[in-house]
């Protein structure tokens, strides 16, 4: 919708023939965001060759853990000069790779042709065409500007940035922090607790970013603070809601059953913790989220442990 509103011809690939047919005939997706009428410039197909044919810009928006397998099928179909844009906010399990790294590796493209679009962009609000800003990150500034133009509308304001690592980490780690904030909210804890988690969450994100070569200023921008605030304060966030359900006592199985879309932080908390260990960075909130979500640690115990860590200077 954003790309079409900005003047692009868009071909949307999806797995399910019934949904693709519904989009083409009714201009709506009956499963997600059925209240939106898609612009006429959007058509849908289940044929990846048709979606890729001639596409100068390819926006990738499948759940992060499925990117490698999906892209392996699509890569041979892409135009050799296509620019690939990741909308995904996760880190691959096992390899601890960022999505742009997976794209470079699987599609065998130079990193100047891989970009990331991120920022405080809760889908339902974008779909309602409410004003929002975003960041297009690419090592090649000219490519970032092309993408910026391709998605700039009256309600969507993208900025460019060359710090791909920082922008990607901001997007992936905020999902983990949103789980922590959601858990706190579900436990009945208030705004001091949430603000402390958000701020210390940003501190551990920045520490990891510095260790990986990111620009620390990125974390004060839309990809860092901006997305963290949106995700940690909104009931529209899947990660925040997932955490809230855990915090109010639902089991992991019940919480997964109640979640219809991807909450990236659930898997990426493990890969972010892995990345932190590989870089020798301390990420106590991320480790706590792993313990609660995957190791069955009761949230009350986890809070006590976090609060009894040794006292230290703020930075
Ligand atoms: N929804 C948002 O508000 C939002 C905003 C910004 C970024 N993102 C990021 O975009 C990415 C996708 O999120 P989403 O909200 O669209 O998630 P989603 O769960 O709605 O999945 C996206 C699409 O991928 C399809 N899909 C699921 N598993 C698949 C698989 N194995 N292979 C192929 N297709 C599959 C789904 O049917 C759906 O159409 C995530 O990394 C998320 O963090 C989401
Ligand atoms: O619904 P979430 O938690 O995946 O967050 C959506 C977007 O990433 C917010 O920018």
TrEMBL record:
Annotated residues for binding of NADPH: 15-16, 32, 89, 123, 238, 264
Domain Glycerol-3-phosphate dehydrogenase NAD-dependent C-terminal span(s) in chain numbering: 163-303
Chain positions recorded as sn-glycerol 3-phosphate binding sites: 89, 119, 174, 227, 237-239
Gene Ontology molecular function terms on file: glycerol-3-phosphate dehydrogenase [NAD(P)+] activity; NAD binding
Catalysed reactions, as listed in the record: sn-glycerol 3-phosphate + NAD(+) = dihydroxyacetone phosphate + NADH + H(+); sn-glycerol 3-phosphate + NADP(+) = dihydroxyacetone phosphate + NADPH + H(+)
Pathway the protein contributes to: Membrane lipid metabolism; glycerophospholipid metabolism
Subcellular location: Cytoplasm
Superkingdom per UniProt: Bacteria
Active site location: 174
NCBIfam families: PRK00094.1-2 (NF000940), PRK00094.1-4 (NF000942)
Protein name in the entry: Glycerol-3-phosphate dehydrogenase [NAD(P)+]
